[in-house]
């Protein structure tokens, strides 16, 4: 059914009391949803998502139907999250993202002991996270991003034994994230996104040491269920960007062997880039830009054979660009601008594909693609290592508009496979797919 429309809403008022599932996503339903629909006694699944002109409010009392799935994301539902949600004892999927809900998170959410996915992102929720939410021990996905929540870091959540996705991005969280007293905090976490907040202090080293879900992964056992579909969590991401973290990058990050995305940009991080980052063989995305990193780029970054995005711009990095970066044959976005690099840009089929913007603001840097030509004193001959690199990777043509890489391909394949896709995963994929475009636009604005 591609379109229902406002005139057809009246037809929904006469639904059978024996109805078990109601799935009308993206059908252009308009108007206010009849309240009786949410009280049908046998209803187990409701999916009215992606109907942006569908209005309604959640019941405030006597809501005791055996609902297992409630998906209203990207609709115009509004009002408060009533305590009556707590009566939906069988609920395992609650996706109210992209609506107009406001008010506070009700502590009664802790009564939803079967809940595996809770997505309340992109609303206007405020207040703090109830500590009682830690009772939802079956929770696998918790996305509270893009709200107005004002709180300290929710330590109570670290005991959730099955949590794989935690997103608190774009809120008003603040304060220092101190060492954890829990023996194994967040034991299965694979996506940790606390970006765009006001956290301070050193990076949360104690969590990095204990992210077992990024160290040991059994793909046969790791997965999420959404609308009765099994979705394997193919991403492992840490995003701490756009906060006020200080200190050095923990060497222990190099032990997170399954880490695929690391974003520490827009903080106040000092010191060197640890050699241990070169051990992250599954890394696709590394962004350390807009910090205060010094010394040279470690040669070990050339070991990141799957890397597609590398942004080290706006730091205080020095020395020559290492020849080992020629090994990054899958690299699609490179930004080393506005540092203190010097010498010759390594010549290779790979690095030659990037524009001036990738190296701008390094006054002592010369060579292609910069207009600043090198003199005889600056030139350096390729060493034997470079010869091996060429023989291994050869010439790789770069096609405009090419969208390559396993993280993109797998993500799109999974999204194409599942007709009813989880919104948190779609948004995450969109972030990864658009990150190069966003960074290019931002860089152009800075250099104008």
From TrEMBL:
One of its GO terms (cellular component) is plasma membrane. It is a single-pass type I membrane protein. InterPro entries: Leu-rich_rpt, Leu-rich_rpt_typical-subtyp, LRR_dom_sf. It is found in: Cell membrane. Keywords: Cell membrane, Glycoprotein, Leucine-rich repeat, Membrane, Receptor, Repeat, Transmembrane, Transmembrane helix. Gene3D superfamilies: Ribonuclease Inhibitor. The chain crosses the membrane at residues 399-418. It holds the Pfam family LRR_1. Belongs to the RLP family. This is Leucine-rich repeat-containing N-terminal plant-type domain-containing protein.
């Amino acid at each position: 059914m591609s379109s229902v429309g406002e005139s057809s809403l009246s037809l929904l008022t006469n639904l059978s009391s024996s109805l078990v599932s109601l799935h009308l996503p993206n059908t252009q339903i308009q108007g206010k949803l009849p309240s009786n629909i949410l009280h049908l006694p046998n209803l187990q699944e409701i999916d009215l998502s992606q109907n942006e002109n569908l209005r309604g409010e959640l019941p405030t009392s006597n809501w005791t139907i055996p609902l297992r799935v409630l998906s209203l994301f990207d609709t115009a539902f509004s009002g408060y999250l009533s305590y009556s949600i707590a009566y939906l004892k069988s609920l395992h999927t609650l996706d109210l993202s992209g609506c107009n809900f406001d008010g506070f998170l009700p502590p009664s959410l802790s009564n939803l002991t079967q809940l595996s996915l809770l997505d309340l992102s992109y609303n206007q929720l405020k207040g703090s996270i109830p500590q009682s939410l830690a009772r939802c021990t079956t929770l696998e996905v918790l996305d509270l991003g893009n709200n107005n929540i004002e709180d300290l870091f929710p330590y109570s959540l670290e005991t959730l034994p099955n949590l794989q996705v935690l997103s608190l991005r774009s809120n008003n969280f603040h304060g220092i994230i101190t060492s954890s007293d829990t023996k194994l905090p967040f034991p299965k976490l694979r996506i940790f996104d606390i970006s765009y907040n006001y956290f301070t202090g050193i990076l949360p080293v104690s969590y990095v040491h204990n992210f077992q879900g990024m160290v040991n992964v059994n793909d046969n056992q790791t997965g999420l269920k959404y609308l009765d579909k099994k979705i394997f969590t193919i991403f492992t991401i840490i995003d701490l960007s756009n906060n006020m973290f200080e200190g050095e990058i923990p060497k222990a990050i190099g032990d997170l062997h399954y880490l695929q995305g690391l974003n520490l940009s827009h903080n106040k991080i000092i010191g060197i880039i640890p050699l241990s980052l070169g051990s992250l063989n599954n890394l696709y995305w590394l962004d350390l830009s807009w910090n205060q990193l010094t010394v040279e780029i470690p040669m070990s970054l050339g070991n990141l054979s799957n890397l597609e995005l590398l942004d080290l711009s706006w730091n205080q990095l020095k020395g020559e660009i290492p020849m080992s970066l020629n090994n990054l044959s899958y690299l699609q976005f490179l930004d080393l601008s506005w540092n203190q690099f010097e010498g010759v840009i390594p010549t290779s089929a790979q690095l030659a594909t990037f524009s001036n913007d990738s190296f701008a603001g390094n006054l002592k840097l010369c060579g292609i693609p910069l207009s600043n030509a090198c003199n005889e004193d600056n030139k350096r001959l390729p060493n034997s290592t470079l010869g091996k690199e060429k023989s291994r990777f050869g010439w790789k043509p770069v096609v405009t508009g090419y969208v390559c890489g396993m993280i993109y391909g797998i993500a799109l394949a999974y999204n194409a496979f599942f007709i009813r896709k989880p919104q948190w995963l779609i948004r995450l994929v969109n972030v990864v797919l658009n990150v190069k475009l966003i960074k290019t636009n931002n860089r152009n604005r800075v250099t104008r």
